[in-house]
């Protein structure tokens, strides 16, 4: 993984070297083109002038694009590279217009005698060597850091190699025409210039398509489908509603909206969001991913889940939900915890609202009975924690009436606000159904309260036999 400092240094160095090379090559081509009168060389010189301008723009853009995001540019400054590449496209098209105009003029209206010289060939071969060197250097850094501006420059100079070769062929054909008195070969130079223009148009079309896509935030080809497939395989998602991708410089930004079961906890939602982010970054490395979760009814929801979903939507905590079928009519009983600081009227109004919404969302329910419990908002100070041998003995004797209870231990007695609390651990067999465990706990608590009326609360903690043997 590269550091931001090394990335900036390499990008600026290769862009600066490209500017220096462009200055040297442009100067040589202009001098030789004027001396020989070759339209091919002059067209290459014009192309090189615009390449120089493009190289300067590229150098400027890579200096700006690497700036970090700020309050006014929250996605960073990477779009500067796309805009730079777009400007280069325009400059290339301007080059084509001039080359085509001058070539047509020389072919049909104003013939120009050119004087191929050794200097002309040396300049063109030198140009090809320099273009090969800098296209390789620019392409390597562009691929390494996914720089559109450097990629555009590299593409320019790689095609310059072929266009220079065409100009050399044109000059050779002119020499052959003179040597063998073949008059039609005198038009080889403007024809070569037209071929150069064709190459430039082709390059421009490729650049234009890529830069316009980048400026219009077009998603990379095939990326959306791959992301849908990768995210769709995340266990726990119900659906993927939306995937949006945009690019700024060498970084992608992905925005997803996904459906999750509405009874999923915040912690589980965060876990799923992390898995989704990892799946997206497997397709687009280092992408900035934002996940929006939308609650959806699960396909396997039962009536209990639907009741709890309504309560959760209203930020209520319900428990001990039971549903009875009374002559074909469903009756629901539930316990609802509310802030102990509420008045009776306030609590009842909230219960009424909850019951109304439950009936609306679960129309199968005929009646609802809600037991209101106060949810403690303060930590209760305990006066003492004692061991009462008599109470402990009585509890164990009552527990023997339940064959499912294998052991009773860790019996503790507390007095909080002058109320007596008792707690204990009970051992059950590993395979006992949880519903039966709950029934035994409830019955044992009832019997113990009947035996000891002064008890305010009895709490039994169930444990499996294997856990108790450790």
Word description of this protein:
- With 470 residues, this protein is an alpha/beta fold.
- It has helices at residues 4-36, 39-65, 79-108, 118-145, 148-179, 188-215, 223-232, 266-283, 303-313, 344-361, 389-399, 434-451, 465-468; strands spanning 237-248, 251-261, 288-296, 317-326, 329-339, 365-375, 382-386, 407-416, 419-428, 455-464.
- It has a four-stranded mixed beta sheet. It has a three-stranded mixed beta sheet with strand order 1-2-3, with helices on one face.
- Helix 12 (434-451) links the parallel strand 9 and strand 10 (455-464).
Class from helix and strand fractions: alpha/beta
Percent of residues in beta strands: 15-25%
* Average pLDDT metric: 76
The shape, in one word, is rod-shaped
Number of distinct beta strands: 10
Helix content estimate: 55-70%
Characterize the largest beta sheet: strand count, sense, and whether it forms a barrel: 4 strands, mixed
Q: How many DSSP helices?
A: 13
Radius of gyration: 40 Å
Uncertain stretches: none
Strand order of the largest sheet: 7-8-9-10
* Straight-line distance between termini: 47 Å
N-to-C series of helices and strands: HHHHHHHEEHEHEEHEEHEEHEH
């Amino acid at each position: 993984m590269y550091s931001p400092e090394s990335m900036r240094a390499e990008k600026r160095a290769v862009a600066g070297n490209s500017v220096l090379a462009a200055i040297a090559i442009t100067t040589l081509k202009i001098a030789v083109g004027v001396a020989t009168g070759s339209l091919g060389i002059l067209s290459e010189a014009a192309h090189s002038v615009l390449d120089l301008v493009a190289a300067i723009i590229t150098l400027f853009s890579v200096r700006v694009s690497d700036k970090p995001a700020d309050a006014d540019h929250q996605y960073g400054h990477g779009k500067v590279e796309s805009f730079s590449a777009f400007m280069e496209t325009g400059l290339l098209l301007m080059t084509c217009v001039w080359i085509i105009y001058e070539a047509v003029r020389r072919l049909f209206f104003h013939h120009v005698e050119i004087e191929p010289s050794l200097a002309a060939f040396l300049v063109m071969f030198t140009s090809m060597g320099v273009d090969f060197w800098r296209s390789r250097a620019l392409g390597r850094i562009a691929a390494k850091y996914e720089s559109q501006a450097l990629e555009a420059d590299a593409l320019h100079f790689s095609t310059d190699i072929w266009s220079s070769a065409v100009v050399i062929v044109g000059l050779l054909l002119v020499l052959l025409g003179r040597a063998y008195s073949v008059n039609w070969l005198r038009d080889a130079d403007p024809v070569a210039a037209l071929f150069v223009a064709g190459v430039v148009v082709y390059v421009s079309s490729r650049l234009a398509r890529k830069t316009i896509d980048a400026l219009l935030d077009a998603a990379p080809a095939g990326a959306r489908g791959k992301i849908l497939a990768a995210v769709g395989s995340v266990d726990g998602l119900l659906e993927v509603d939306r995937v949006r991708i945009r690019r700024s410089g060498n970084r992608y930004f992905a925005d997803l909206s996904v459906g999750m079961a509405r009874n999923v906890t915040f912690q589980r939602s965060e876990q799923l969001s992390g898995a989704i982010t990892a799946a997206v970054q497997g397709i687009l490395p280092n992408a900035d991913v934002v996940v929006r979760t939308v609650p959806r009814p699960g396909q396997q929801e039962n009536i209990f889940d639907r009741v709890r979903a309504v309560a959760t939507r209203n930020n209520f905590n319900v428990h001990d939900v039971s549903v009875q079928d009374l002559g074909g009519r469903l009756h629901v009983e539930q316990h609802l915890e509310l802030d102990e600081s509420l008045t009776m009227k306030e609590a009842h109004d909230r219960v009424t609202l909850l019951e109304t919404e439950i009936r609306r969302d679960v129309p199968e329910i005929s009646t609802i009975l809600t037991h209101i419990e106060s949810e403690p908002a303060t930590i209760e100070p305990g006066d003492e924690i004692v061991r009462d041998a008599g109470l402990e003995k009585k509890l164990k004797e009552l527990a023997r009436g339940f064959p499912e209870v294998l052991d009773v231990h860790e019996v503790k007695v507390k007095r909080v606000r002058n109320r007596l609390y008792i707690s204990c651990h009970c051992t059950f067999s590993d395979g006992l159904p949880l519903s039966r465990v709950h029934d035994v706990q409830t019955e044992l608590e009832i019997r113990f309260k009947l035996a000891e009326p002064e008890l305010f609360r009895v709490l039994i903690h169930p444990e499996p036999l294997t856990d108790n043997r450790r």
